[in-house]
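During the first year of the project, the team set up a workflow for recording each protein of interest as an amino acid sequence followed immediately by a discrete structure-token representation. This format lets reviewers and collaborators read both layers of information side by side without switching files. As required by the reporting guidelines, we include two representative entries from the current panel. The first entry is reproduced here exactly as it appears in our internal archive.
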Amino acid sequence: MKTFVGPGAATCCSLLSFCGILFLVLLGTAFKAKVEVLTEFISDPDNPYDTAQACFTAAIVYACFLGFCGCQVLVHKYNSRQQIQL
């Protein structure tokens, strides 16, 4: 099996992607609920629902990165076990 990134980078990407997913889902939920702190100022978005959708879409992108990097972590673990058995 071929790896595209190193084991450290894959682990770091997985952890950061997981944190990004949590943050974006919480932020999207807050915008969807029209939390006053996020929607009361002049510089805030005109349509909080569209902003929430953008947050959820970004969370899906992060989930794809999490899946890819998680697979890379598993491939590294599999390859290291194969080398030990030789």
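The second entry, processed by the same pipeline in the following quarter, appears below.
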Amino acid sequence: MRTYEAMDSVLIRATTLPESVEFPCWPDLAGSDVVGWREWLRRVWGISGFADAVTVASPVLAAQVRRQIATRPPAGDDEVRVRRLVETLARYLLRWAGRATPFGLFAGVAPVEVGGRAVARVGGRHQPVFRPDGECVDRQVRRIEQRLETLRTVEVRTNSLGFARGGSWIVHASLD
């Protein structure tokens, strides 16, 4: 049985919210100001980086927002639907502003160097890095294994760091 093992590395997580962002005034959801709510959606959607982050996190939500902020509102959209959309986007904004959970493009992680004095440098040269999960890798491998012409060109390497778990052979991906 493996127990917890300390590592000699540290990561920090931080929000990607730009310092200069000013949120528009929160909408009054007590009434039924659908026109005002759509204007709030339009202003929030225009915040630098927000639309991209929401689109990565929830393409369906992003499509709903784009429909609402179109020049003409979709026929049949009711007050309840627009209110829910505003509430959902407000939750995303609050998460982005105050909870640095690495979720899509809302926050990220960076390595930390441990030293004798605390110093933090935050810059603007951040780059999103996408790493496929196990299911994505498995789908790609299965697709490649079905194509003989591709399979003949694949370089095969051994890795002695793998181990058996159940009926599978587990090999951790390199993070180089």
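For the second entry, the following points were noted during internal review. Residues 34 and 78 are 8 Å apart (CA to CA). Residues 79-98 form the longest helix (20 residues). Both points are flagged for discussion at the upcoming steering committee meeting.
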